[in-house]
Amino acid sequence: MAEDKVFLDTNIIIYAYDATAGEKHRTARDILVDLWNSGRGLLSAQVLQEFFVTVTRKIPNPIEPELAGDIIDGFLKWDVVSITGESVPDAIGIHLQYKYSFWDSMIIEASIRGGATLLLTEDFSDGQKIGDLRIKNPFK
């Protein structure tokens, strides 16, 4: 369905801005363009925080903090899931049931809370379903 929300894990948007990532860079850029055009993109505050730290300090050609801030400002036009008090016990439940790290469980919880039907990431089990959420590795 065209209206289904797609949640992006941090690694997808990092690859989109890391030109040294080769084919992953091209794939991630295509994903971002599609989600910008369709308006189906969904992120969380955690993803934006991780993106800023990684692209300004951890990639081979870091982005200037001011530019990273401008990129984040652009992403604020997307739906951004906020962390609430209820997010934490829900993420703990995901952590206990599915054995993901707590922080990865927070990403899954934010995807579910935001109403996403698809979570794009390279870090979780490709093809896994958690409720109505399907996890997909776009680089496979």
Description:
The protein is an alpha/beta fold and 140 residues long. It has a single domain (5-136), classed as 5'-nuclease (Rossmann fold, 3-Layer(aba) Sandwich), CATH 3.40.50. It has 6 helices and 6 strands, in the order E-H-H-E-H-H-E-H-H-E-E-E. It has helices at 10-17, 23-38, 45-57, 65-75, 87-98, 102-113, and strands at residues 5-8, 41-44, 79-81, 116-120, 129-130, 133-136. Strands 3-2-1-4-6-5 form a 6-stranded mixed β-sheet. A hairpin with a 2-residue loop joins strand 5 (129-130) and strand 6 (133-136). The mean pLDDT is 95.
Task: Summarize, please.
The protein is of the alpha/beta class and 140 residues long.
The number of helices is 6
Bin the helical content.
40-55%
The biggest beta sheet, please? 6 strands, mixed
Q: How many separate domains?
A: 1
Give the second-level CATH assignment, the architecture. Answer: 3-Layer(aba) Sandwich
Instruction: Measure the end-to-end span.
Output: 22 Å
Mind sketching the topology for me?
Layout: E1 5-8, H1 10-17, H2 23-38, E2 41-44, H3 45-57, H4 65-75, E3 79-81, H5 87-98, H6 102-113, E4 116-120, E5 129-130, E6 133-136
Parallel strand pairs: 1-2, 1-4, 2-3, 4-6
Antiparallel strand pairs: 5-6
Helix pairs in contact: 1-2, 1-3, 3-4, 5-6
Main features:
alpha/beta; 51% helix; 6 helices; 140 residues; Rossmann fold
